[in-house]
Amino acid sequence: MAEPKTEAFAGPVGPWRGTLPLAASGIAVVSFVALLALAWMSVATLFLVFAGVLLGVFLDGLTRGLGHVLPLPRGLRLTIASLAVAAAAIGLIGFGGATVVQQGRDLGQTIKSQAGTVTSWLSSYGIDLPILDSVGGPDGKGKDEKPAPKDDAKKPEGLGGLASSAIKSPGSLLSDAGNVLGPAAAVIIGLFSALGNVLVIVFLGLSFAADPASYRDGVLRFIPPRKRDRWSKVLDGAGETLRHWLFGQLITMTVIFLCIWGGLAFLGIGGSLILGLQAGLLAFVPTVGPLVAGVIILLASLASGVNALLGALGVYLLVQCLESYGLTPFIQKRALDIPPATIFAGQLVLGVIFGLWGIALALPMMAVIKVLLEQLYVEDTLGEDATV
Description:
mainly alpha
């Protein structure tokens, strides 16, 4: 009787047959992890790019709106929209810049003084708030401030000291340069950093608004051909949602600025312009922004007496009711319909992970994520209607 033949072992079967696919899979996993690590390390730059995208969406919306009024080529309409935005910004800085700077300086001193007053009042009841202690005491100085230690050996000052330090240690050049230039060095560096960020955002915004179709088509090239039509609709939907949200938010911020400014000026509270301006700007960040603006308004109005404090509190609550129950439901209902608790939780998570950038840009990011989830998961995967 012949023995049955046994087949020789042919190696791995299935999708991992051979060593080349296995090595390619390992390289893909390592590359994906490296990409995530790179994105994490450059998160500030990514948020800067996203801010540029928001500006591009805003300028694109203005250009589309002008198309209904002026039958001009897109490039000319974009130029008109960009010049109008630049003129509005320059006009605001030119006509109100000096007033804003002066009121901002006075407001800073007032908040320091009133924070110290509140700290002393709470300390008398045995309540200690380190945050207010660091802001300022009754004399405008923080309790934790200590006089700078005096060096026993007097160091040479001026350019001579800078040269001698550079000879001794190249690493001490920057620190001694700061001593020579004084506080102006930090101010100049901060201004250049802020100006650089603004220029990057403006450049990206103009680039995106000039030809948004090319950037969308560039993203679609990485999508399989059979899914490109669907992804094209998804990207267009995300852009439309961002446009509606941005213009609605701009209207809300303007109304809050005018109401706070007019109400506080009517009450005779000093710095009403800067208080209204900061309230309008902070309205860009929902939930967290209005709370911060309210604390600043109350601290500033405390210097004018109890009646002014109560009046400012009434103005603030009235404006918040107008914003919460009038403006936001009416303006933002079409653009963004997310429960307040979800918005607050998203801000907390993004703020803890990404810091100030995460808090400031949490809502537009959640708007984009909402569109992606509704169209790609709820509609395509679950087969349900996302509008229900």
